[in-house]
Design goal:
Helix content is about 25%, strand content about 35%. By secondary structure, it is an alpha+beta fold. The longest helix has 18 residues, at about 1-20. The protein is globular.
Length: about 210
């Protein structure tokens, strides 16, 4: 009877040792060091985060917007569109080397060129004695309208309705079918002066793809 109890005692002891391998080896006769925990991996960027990261990087080279190919200058940054801009704006750029407040938007909209030029004029309060500068420019063998406005810029309700003095806008309207194409460069006058040469080169690089 004592021999049976002795055998059961040792069986229970071996079972307990196997339950707690850190106390001793089980089966192999050797103790095993605990394995290293895996290093946690960073969660992958969502598609929206990835797009925002890529868009905030410097953009340059040939790019096509609404069927028009442009040569984007080095250093320009294409930025993600806000929910209010989506569906109305094709692309938005910042030009950091000209200044932090210089912005360029590209869009294709209907309504007619003259109506849209009038809307731009209505966004500016010009100082006494200053007139809009309007001229015709050639864009890939098509006559486009260049409109230069300087004064207090009323952003309108879409941008919280703020009015900023000392601003300037260069807008270009290119006749297209079925919707005309517009470039709108805005910013403080001194910053826009620095951006103007590259903007002109960007406009001259335009080539219609369709």
């Amino acid at each position: 009877m004592s021999a049976v109890l002795s055998q059961n005692f040792w069986k229970h002891l071996v079972f307990l040792v196997c339950l707690f391998p850190g106390l001793s080896g089980c089966g192999s006769g050797e103790s095993e060091a605990p394995a290293d925990l895996p290093v946690p991996e960073a969660a992958p960027l969502s598609s929206a985060q990835s797009a925002a990261t890529e868009a905030s990087q410097s953009e340059s080279g040939e790019k096509v917007f609404d069927g028009i190919q442009f040569d984007v200058p080095a250093g320009w940054q294409q930025i993600p569109l806000s929910p209010a801009q989506q569906g109305m704006i094709s692309a938005s750029f910042q030009i950091p080397k000209a200044g932090p407040d210089v912005k360029l938007t590209l869009s294709s909209v209907g309504g007619g060129i003259e109506a849209n030029l009038q809307r731009w004029r209505g966004q500016f309060q010009l100082p006494p004695g200053e007139e809009p500068i309007q001229k015709t420019v050639r864009v890939d063998d098509v006559d486009a309208i260049w409109l230069d406005l300087r004064g207090t810029f009323d952003t309108g309700p879409a941008l919280n309705g703020t009015a900023e003095a000392g601003m300037r806008m260069i807008g270009v309207a290119i006749p297209r079918s079925p919707r005309d194409f517009y470039l709108k460069l805005t910013g403080p006058r001194e910053q826009l002066l620095k951006a103007e040469p590259e903007f002109e080169a960007f406009l001259k690089s335009a080539r219609f793809k369709q």
